[in-house]
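Pipeline run #58 for the internal structure catalog. This entry was flagged by the ingest filter as a single-chain record with no existing model, so it goes straight to prediction. Upstream metadata was stripped on purpose; only the residue string is passed forward. Reviewer on rotation: M.T. Logging verbosity set to normal.
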Amino acid sequence: MKIAISGKGGVGKTTLSAFLVRWFASQGKQVLAIDADPDANLAHGLGAIGASELIPISEMKDLVAERTESVPGSFGGFFKMNPKVDDLPEKLAVKIGEGIRLMVMGGVKKGGMGCVCAESVLLKNLLQHLILRRDEVVVMDMEAGIEHLGRATSRSVDCLIVVVEPGRRSIDTALKIKDLARDIALERVFLAGNKIRNRSDQDFLRDALSGFRFLGFIPYDDHIIEADLHGAFPEDMETQTIACFNEIAQSVMDLSTKSH
């Protein structure tokens, strides 16, 4: 079961990712949580102890150099395009709870432009291995660009969930993500509405994104905002909020069952 979650920054995709990780673990599943957003926050969202001390894989210069046969910290030149990655989950994934392990991928930032560099090659090969070869539940907190995904992996992703909030920028991002997903033949794209204050917010999103299927709508909850400020999992969510998250999680489980 492979689940990718994306959306504009600040819409709550990390909160949904963290809830799904915990929910599947509570169902007795072994879960590998992947933070594939350059602005890594999933460790905090899961309430992991020592979250700030985790080093993203993209910043492990010696590891990148060893696996890609490149020069640490260099840009350009020759390097290996198919580095060995199958042993990295066991070596680098950190156990943060019963049935839950976490890997922080990190990002590659080169003046605001994408690059074909040793770091990006290692990350992409690693993610392909996690999606295609691993047999546990994999929940990926992605950036809006879903840059680590490719055609080779898209067919094995059970669903891409785009988190949206009532607002034009969030809607525009969702439409762009859908186009990016179509480019790599990823058809199973769904939405989760977040920070919903009333029925009007739901109707606004449904009207603006009528070509999508919504898995659920999460109400605006001050407990989530407060937990995010403290870098923690929102343990004290309202009953209605928990019910909505559970509905989305069950829908994801059902989608995965059907896709297999």
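catalog note: The chain has ten helices and eight strands.
catalog note: The longest strand covers residues 189-196.
status: ready for reviewer M.T.
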